[in-house]
Amino acid sequence: MTLRFNMKSPSKRSQTLDKLRSAIQEMILDREWNQVSVQDIAQHANVSIGTFYNYFDSKDTALMDVRKVLSDVLFRDLDLLLTTHQEIDKRLTLLVKYFISLTMNKPKWASYLYGGNSFGERLEGGISKALKAILIEGVSKRVFRVNDIDITTEFIESGLFFIIRNRYLTKQPLDEDFMNEVANICLNSVGIQVENISELSLMSCPVTPLTPLPISTLAIAYDDMEFV
Amino acid sequence: MTLRFNMKSPSKRSQTLDKLRSAIQEMILDREWNQVSVQDIAQHANVSIGTFYNYFDSKDTALMDVRKVLSDVLFRDLDLLLTTHQEIDKRLTLLVKYFISLTMNKPKWASYLYGGNSFGERLEGGISKALKAILIEGVSKRVFRVNDIDITTEFIESGLFFIIRNRYLTKQPLDEDFMNEVANICLNSVGIQVENISELSLMSCPVTPLTPLPISTLAIAYDDMEFV
Q1: pLDDT for the residue numbered B11
Q2: Chain A closest CA to B198's CA: distance in Å?
Q3: How far, in Å, CA of B68 to CA of B136, rounded?
Q4: Which residues from A are below 8 Å from B152, CB to CB?
Q5: Which residues of chain A have a CB within 8 Å of the CB of B146?
Q6: Mean of the pLDDT values across residues B30-43?
Q7: For B96-137, what is each residue's pLDDT tens digit?
Q8: Which of A110, A162, B80, B156 is the most exposed place for a label (fewest CB within 10 A)?
Q9: What's A214's DSSP letter?
């Protein structure tokens, strides 16, 4: 549910919070987080250090807040993509390809995601919630052949993260071929029938309209209102 | 090839190098490597800082040296285990189970391996050399169904590392059940025929005679000589 508010003047508090959130995003994209100080953030957002502490207890609380905001945006984008297909094996393929497509097409998001050491560091809960839901459905429909859903989720999440991050950090090509190969391995690892894998892994993944970073939470609020 | 040397008195240089290597192993098992100084190592080995620099250019060169020594010991142990089976699918199963068995049964090795952020940080070349050789053979024998061997190697290496490390760090049980489930996923991910997976994944993995840490390189040299 989206609450309508006065578009002409978001409250002073919302505006300041938004300035801080944008500054945090810019700084985390720009350098190592452990080299960013509260003073840097305040300066970048053009507010006092005291003002910063009116909103956040610490630098790390601030990052958790921004992570929550960005996770909501990303998972909403991913969910919209996933609803374009009913078949559970196609949805798994799309989920895998989504993160490679994002790395190819959204450089600032890629820099944000792979600045961490796991999906969970930069996305609240990592990708395991989305992945696990798909695995549960695939197993119950007998499309996947998975014994232990939790272990399989963790295995795919880690494998996927590092395989993409290594390519990204070493500036190796992230292209259609790579995407198809990674989809192939993930489909294999949930035990999908061999005759279905090659067709599935070639399935194309559209580039989604994911908003570029840094994201203004005020802009997101306005976006929501368009759908009211 | 092992060169015979005078067993009664290893040279002074070998003895000092061995003391330094043992001290490095003890310190890396005991605390974060970035909190260890050259002074700490020298003190622990009971030599002067000047002596340390007669053997190593820096703290990190010293760690690389020890990593090489430990990698050789571990891979020799693993290779001996793998030669107990001819079938390539059984060898993959053993390789996967080996690292879980080691985590369960060799606490100091576990602490050494999972103190890093990848197998490659603590084992020279990671486990990809061993894994890739198995994948190449499995594909050429048409037992595995893998498109891209490099990507699959990297995927399994990352998935395996993090799935074990997470269990280990969160003190969840590393038992036979876990071992079988992880083997199941890895076998799935190389596309082994479904009817073979359940039997394979139940295959038992013996505890190997891997020498406990810290390892003395002089003792290893003596061990080698027994085979001469």
Answers
A1: 86
A2: 10
A3: 25
A4: 185
A5: 185, 188
A6: 91
A7: 999 999 999 999 999 999 999 999 999 999 999 999 999 999
A8: B80
A9: S
- A4 domain-assigned: no
CB contact under 8 A, A185 and B155: yes
Q: Which domain holds residue A86?
A: 70-226
In a domain, A126, yes or no: yes
d(CA A104, CA A183): 15
Phi, psi angle pair for B197, to nearest 5°: -65, -45
**Inter-chain contact B191–A190, Cβ cutoff 8 Å?**
no
Give the residue on A whose Cα is nearest the Cα of B191. A188
Task: Kindly state the tokens that stand for B169.
Answer: 């760090």
Cβ–Cβ of A155/B182 closer than 8 Å?
A: yes
ipTM above 0.90 for this complex: no
SS (H, E, C) B116-150: CCCHHHHCCCCCHHHHHHHHHHHHHCCCCCCCCHH
Contact status of B181 with chain A (Cβ, < 8 Å): yes
Distance from CA of B224 to the nearest CA of A (A): 37
Q: Closest Cα of chain A to B141: distance in Å?
A: 17
What confidence tens digit (pLDDT) does each residue in B168-179 have?
999 998 999 999
**Residue A104 covered by a domain:** yes
Question: A-chain residues within 8 Å CB-CB of B191?
Answer: 188, 194, 197
B189:A184 CB<8 A: no
Measured CA distances, A102 to A94, A96, A211, A212, B174 (Å): 12, 10, 11, 11, 35
Domain count, chain A: 1
- For chain B, helix, strand, coil in percent to 5 are 70, 0, 30
Q: Are B192 and A188 in contact (CB under 8 A)?
A: no
Contacts B162 to A, Cβ<8 Å? 118, 154-155, 158, 162
CATH code, domain carrying B111: 1.10.357.10
Cβ separation of A159 and B159 shorter than 8 Å? yes
**Low pLDDT (below 70) residues in chain A:** 1-9, 220-228
- Cis, peptide link before residue B206, omega less than 30° from 0: no
CB contact under 8 A, B151 and A117: no
- Tokens 């570029």 locate to A212
Give the closest-approach CA distance of A107 to chain B in angstroms: 22
| Residue B154 with chain A: CB contacts under 8 Å | 159, 162-163, 166
Q: Encode pLDDT of B4-33 as tens digits.
A: 454 556 788 899 999 999 999 999 998 888
A130 in any annotated domain: yes
Identify the three-state secondary structure at position B63: helix
Bond into B214 cis (ω within 30): yes
